[in-house]
Specification:
This protein is mainly α and 160 residues long. It has a single domain (10-123), classed as Arc Repressor Mutant, subunit A (Orthogonal Bundle). Helix content is 72%, strand content 6%. The chain has helices spanning 3-26, 38-50, 55-62, 66-78, 100-123, 126-159, and strands at 82-86, 94-98. The protein has a two-stranded antiparallel ribbon. Helix 1 packs across helix 5 (100-123). The protein is globular, with a radius of gyration of 19 Å.
Length: 160
Amino acid sequence: MNKQQYKALFEKIYIGTSMNFFHEVFNKKGKPDDALTTSEVFSMEVIYSLGRPTVNQFARYLHLTSPNAAYKVNHLVQKGYLTKTQSQTDKRVYYLEATEKYYSYYAINHSYVDRIFDLLAERLSDEEWVVFKRILDILDQEQTRFIERQDAAARKDHQN
């Protein structure tokens, strides 16, 4: 395989995982008044991925105005998917945290990953697991660096 073929395979895996998540989330039964909209699912994924961001960090990351971010956050709080926790050191700052209600949605993706890993366990040797872990560690490091660069650029843009 050449580099382009590996890239295409990686994209196929990413898309398959995303499609499973969205299929499950948008087919989830619940009360219409607390169901997540597409935009809210996206917002929650970003908040969860940022790991307890402030409202400003969330807004900056998605290039939202502060009022728009506050509007999105307040709706997610009202629906019970998000909490705002006031900073102990700066009472103007609130940290965003997903609730158990969101984690029940997010568990959908975890069950898919669990199923895929169970299937992999049937096929990979111990040596292949070692190589796979090394590759996953590298992917994680590079993705983290990429996100940190994006966040730094967003902070710089926000200051200008």
